[in-house]
Design a protein that fits this description.
5 helices; alpha/beta; globular; about 200 residues; 3-stranded antiparallel β-sheet; 5-stranded parallel β-sheet
Amino acid sequence: MLKIQGLHVEKRGHLLCHVETLKVESGDRLTITGENGAGKSTLLRVIAGLERTFSGTVQTKLDLNQRVYVHQDPVMFHGSVQQNVEFGLKSRGVSKSCCKEQSLEMLERLKCCHLHSSDATRLSSGERRRVALARAIVINPSLLLLDEPFAELDSTGIDAVLQVLESLPSAILVASPTGSPSLLRSESFRLHSPAKRGK
């Protein structure tokens, strides 16, 4: 599904991320750990196709619309929570009735269906994070890239997110400075801070 070799991301003379080799297969669960500045977010952005300035090789047969990246500080579109979750479905030509059904089902699974008519721009940080996850997951991506998805979630939110993630056929990469709550079949891949490399 994905193979990275000799990845080197540098901006203005500063090394942001370096990965010798990384391979991800369909259905894999991988937690990317490392201290702040190790390049976790940069790695996810490269894989998502959002960061295109790098050396090395990133090989994948997945189209960009099969790779979904959820930012650690997700942005909500203007409109309701339900409209936000329906966005990706509508862009893929899903019928109005199916959009409504699938979006409400995903919100229910993530324990935030009660927010469906709320203004998405006025949510708390934890609510915004779960809605962003619903928006990403509902389109069934082949590769789900999550940047600190459990930050600012209470125990109920974490449990709901874990249950949904563990049920997905998607490959899932989770970036976390300390590791994530245990994902089914999760393995760990640690990045080291480029600033400390070689010490």
